[in-house]
Amino acid sequence: MVRELNALDMDVMAIDSDENRVNEYSDIATHAVVADTTDEAVMKSLGIRNFDHVIVAIGENIQSSTLTTLILKELGV
What we know:
Elements: H1 2-7, E1 13-16, H2 19-25, E2 31-34, H3 40-45, H4 62-74
């Protein structure tokens, strides 16, 4: 997904708690950050409010996906 969005010349912030994954996408994402998306303070500090759209793709952990989505909604994204 990051590659496709990059190919469309879109700014992409890739966030993951796994440093290896972040490193994998650091060359193609506009911003690649190691962070916990379930921490509202962290999301605020990343300037996530400045993004028009977000895609939450947290694989197997439905709780993290739900919490991240709730935080994004509270932040107005």
